[in-house]
Write a structure and sequence with these properties.
Structural class: mainly alpha
Keywords: Membrane, Transmembrane, Transmembrane helix
Mean pLDDT: 88
Order of helices and strands: HH
Number of helices: 2
Protein name: Succinate dehydrogenase/fumarate reductase cytochrome b subunit
Organism: Lysobacter niastensis
Transmembrane segments: 6-30, 42-66
Largest sheet: none
Number of strands: 0
């Protein structure tokens, strides 16, 4: 898997997470507690966030991505 595809996958996850967060806010303002759409949107956001974290952990363990950042030593 090339680097741009990995980056696009992570960005797509983040966009869907933010979309569900916005949907939860919208439903909270519009429904005024009359339906479960807010809870469903926020539940999807949490599930997607957990899935993204697990995906990144698995990708690091499998060697598909290499973490880097401030204070890291290059190999």
């Amino acid at each position: 898997m090339n680097d741009s595809l990995k980056t696009l996958l992570i960005i797509a996850f983040l966009i869907v997470i933010v979309w569900n967060l916005g949907a939860g806010l919208y439903y909270m303002l519009v429904d005024k507690g009359e339906s479960k759409r807010t809870v469903n949107a926020l539940t999807r956001r949490i599930a997607l966030s957990i899935a993204l974290i697990l995906l990144v952990i698995v990708a690091i363990k499998m060697g598909w991505i290499v973490p880097h950042g401030i204070g890291s030593n290059p190999h």
